[in-house]
Amino acid sequence: xxxxAADSALVLFSGGQDSATCLAWALDRFAQVETLxxxxxxxxxxxxxxxxxxxKGMAGLNPAWATRLGEDHTLDLxxxxxxxQTALTRDVEIAMGAEGLPxxxxxxxxxxxxxxxxxxxxxxGIRHLVTGVCETDYSGYPDCRDDTIKALQVAxxxxxxxxxxxxxxxxxxxxxxxxxxxxxxxxNALVSLIREESHSCYLGLRDTRHDWGYGCxxxxxxxxxxxxxxxxxxxx
Length: 236
What we know:
globular; single chain; alpha/beta; five-stranded parallel beta sheet; Rossmann fold; two-stranded antiparallel sheet
């Protein structure tokens, strides 16, 4: 039996640490949870390959989560990659841009992701959308701000004549607290799963194992994840 819309959620699930934590958060709260990933030509497309192991691992951690975990979806958005021409979609050095934003910023990415997610949720009869955007530990991306998400929720509800609720469990916590949230939700087993199977490295490298997981260890995403894990491991 399909859970009613009020009890169902769709998690924007990239295969990274943040979205993996958000998936666990949703599984802890909703009767049915589906996942959605996007292939937009990102350099770190290896993150998409991590999604299956994370889903399987979470189902194995908790019988209730296994029952609640529903379908997985992947949408191809090649036009976003070809339009953006950023350090996440082409082989260029990661640096700050002229407008004060890092060149890893993909303009409109989260706006498009959430719009496509809402369109899928509309068809699937799902009310709740969960995303791992965050104002506390971010690179200045304007589409990660709380005001942006609130404004988009209004626009989606008006434009689709539905009462979607956009959840941002990580909005006001840093990376150390994100690791702690994983600990609170699934104990050491979930933390270990995220360390081993999730991917954050912008360069898409998984040939070096660090305490916090796999990655180059030098890009902004790796540095943020590493510092957060160190603070978490030290008890913040």
